[in-house]
Amino acid sequence: MKVGLFIPCYVDMLYPKVGIATYSLLKKLGVNVTYPMGQTCCGQPMANSGYENLTCEANKNFIEQFKDFDIIVAPSGSCVLHIKEHLKGDKENQAVPIQENIYELTEFLTDVLKINNLKASFPHKVGFHQSCHGQRGLHLSGMSELTAAYFSKPEQLLQQVENIELIRLDKQDECCGFGGTFCITEEAVSSKMGKDRLADHIKNGAEYITACDMSCLMHLEGIANREKKEVKIIHIAEILNTENVNR
C-alpha cells in the first residue's frame, strides 16, 4: 500500500510540527508513506469564499501530485472533505480515484490500519474538540442531535494513550465558530462562539485542547492567547505520536 501524505498549506506554514508528527506516526506504524514535494493548497479557501471557479490550477496540481498513490492521508478533516466533494479534473472521472481513497488521519488509523494498541503516553487532562467538517461531513463521530449510539474514531484512539485523562464537556459537539472564511465575514459571531467553546474546556479542567483540525485549534489558540488563558492546544497527531514524554 503506497500512501501519499497531504499536508494542508496552513499547517505547512504555521504548524509544521503537526505535519512532522503525522509523518513520524505513520512511519512508526509501518506505513509506506511519501510526502509529494510539489503539493500546494487544495483550493478550499477560494471555494469557501465563493470562487470555486478559480481552483482549477489547484485541482490540476493536486491530481498530478497524488494520482499514483493507493491512499492519501491528511491531518485535516476540512481539507479532506473539500477534496472528496469538490476536486475536479480536466477529464471525466479523473478525480474519482483520489476522492474515493483520501482519508483524514484518525479515519485512516481506525478504518484502514485498525489500530487498537498505540504505544503513546500523554499524562495530562485533555479536552477533545469535535470539528464540524470531521463530525458532520466525514462522520468521524456521532452527533448529539441524532438518536443513535455514540461513537468517536478520534476518541477511540485517544483512549489507547497511556496516562491521558479525557475530560467531559458540557456541550460535546458544539462548533468553535472558526468556519474558514466565516471567522472573517462574521467576526463577532465567530469570536463569541470560540469564547464559549474555550470556556467549556477550561471550566472542566482541560490542560490541553486537541482536535483533528488545526484550523479550529488555531482559532481557539488565538482567543486563549488574547484572554491570557493557560490552556494549550495540540493536534491529535502530536498526542498519538508521543512516547512516554512528559510535556
Account of the 3D structure:
By secondary structure, the chain is an alpha/beta fold. Helix content is 44%, strand content 11%. It has 2 domains: 2-112; 125-240, 3-Layer(aba) Sandwich (Rossmann fold). The protein has helices spanning 9-14, 16-28, 44-48, 56-66, 77-86, 96-100, 105-112, 132-137, 153-158, 182-185, 187-203, 214-226, 236-240, and strands at 2-5, 32-34, 71-74, 102-104, 125-128, 165-166, 208-211, 232-235.
- SS element count, helices: 13
What helical percentage do the residues reach?
A: 40-55%
Radius of gyration: 18 Å
Which stretches of 5+ consecutive residues score pLDDT under 50? none
Number of domains: 2
Structural class: alpha/beta
Number of strands: 8
Task: Specify the CATH architecture of the largest domain.
Answer: 3-Layer(aba) Sandwich
| CATH topology category name of the largest domain | Rossmann fold
Order of helices and strands: EHHEHHEHHEHEHHEHHEHEH
The top level CATH class name of the largest domain: Alpha Beta
Mean pLDDT rating: 93
**What's the overall geometry?**
globular
Strand order of the largest sheet: 2-1-3-4
Strand content: 5-15%
Kindly, what is the distance between the CA atoms of the first and last residues, rounded to a whole number of angstroms? Answer: 34 Å
Outline the biggest β-sheet: 4 strands, parallel
